[in-house]
Automatic annotation (TrEMBL):
Source species: Streptomyces ovatisporus
Regions of compositional bias (Gly residues) in chain numbering: 1-11
Highest rank taxon of the organism: Bacteria
Residues covered by region (Disordered): 1-37
Sorted UniProt keywords: Membrane, Transmembrane, Transmembrane helix
UniProt key word Membrane: yes
Sequence intervals crossing the membrane: 48-67, 73-92, 99-118, 124-151
Protein known as: DUF6113 family protein
Length: 162
């Protein structure tokens, strides 16, 4: 493959088969390719801390989404689902594991299901409409999809095949 003169070096391969970075420079040892976040530390307490933070973010996204989804229908519904999908996919890409998407997905799903239960006074947060069901089922489907999509490992700088 060869890059055109207007692409700024993106997508070119050097003579050794290594992908060039976005700025046209070959990858340096230990540096991740353009667009990949820094890896989560391999230490178990640090990784569990990241998973717990993603779980809490999932709870917050569930609460915010349940308040927004019916407020500005259909725009609020799309905004709530887009935020949830972004969180699930971002967690998977950050951690490079399926648990990275499952942690915020679990927090989101438990929160949304708990918010759908009726209170003794007869009040509940979700209205009886198609938007509430699309939000509930669509968010769960998005969490499962993001958790089951196989994430490719980031290319190893200096490795011949990637």
């Amino acid at each position: 493959m060869s890059g055109g003169s207007g692409d700024g070096g993106a997508g070119r391969q050097s003579a050794g088969g290594q992908r060039d970075r976005r700025d046209g420079q070959p990858p340096r040892g230990g540096q991740l390719p353009y667009g990949w976040p820094q890896p989560v530390p391999a230490a178990r307490p640090a990784r569990l801390g990241v998973y717990f933070a993603l779980l809490v973010l999932g709870v917050l996204a569930g609460v915010a989404g349940s308040l927004v989804q019916s407020g500005w229908f259909p725009g609020g519904l799309l905004l709530a689902l887009a935020g949830a999908v972004g969180l699930f996919w971002g967690g998977a890409k950050l951690c490079r594991t399926r648990v990275g998407a499952a942690a915020p997905g679990a927090g989101w799903a438990v929160t949304v299901v708990l918010l759908t239960t009726a209170r003794p006074e007869g009040d509940f947060l979700f209205g009886a409409g198609i938007g509430s069901y699309v939000f509930l089922l669509g968010g769960m489907l998005a969490a499962v999809m993001c958790a089951t999509i196989a994430l490719p490992a980031p290319p190893v700088p200096g490795h011949k095949y990637h």
